[in-house]
Amino acid sequence: MDPLSELERMAQNATASSPSPPTEACISRWQHLFQYTRSEAQILIATHRSDVTRIRIPDSHWALVREEREAAGYDRETYEHSLQLKDVLNAQSTVVHDGEGKAWCLIRLGGLLGSAEKVRDVAGLGEVPGVTEGWNEMGMVRFCMVDEEAKKNIERWVEQQQVL
Description:
Blueprint: H1 3-16, H2 24-34, H3 38-50, H4 59-71, H5 76-82, H6 85-91, E1 93-97, E2 103-108, H7 116-123, E3 131-136, E4 139-147, H8 148-163
Antiparallel strand pairs: 1-2, 2-4, 3-4
Helix pairs in contact: 2-3
């Protein structure tokens, strides 16, 4: 990648970011499209807007999908966020190892994965995974623990949500 092009992209992201707080309509859109709580929406909007390293879609890309995506309730910002859902999942998940060395993934419950039952369905599990609580940048949050295969199933499902 050309370093000057990368710097220009970051500068464009910095100038395109809205320094003002999101409007009520913006927060509601994020809540509706991604099933975020109000607090999650506010934090993720701020995170999205302040990320100067994010990949912005070109105008030509937005022109191709705009009519369809706007009909589904998206604007350019929420569409760009939808393309990053797998990154959001991974940023809010972590891997732990048990005493036998087996890897387990802690998946934060929220948004499109709002319940342990949803995790069970998406991951193809036979039973509802256990839920534990913990803290992250959003405050007290709930997590499900799944194995690596279930995490892969969840990631595939999230990728499918990006194109719906």
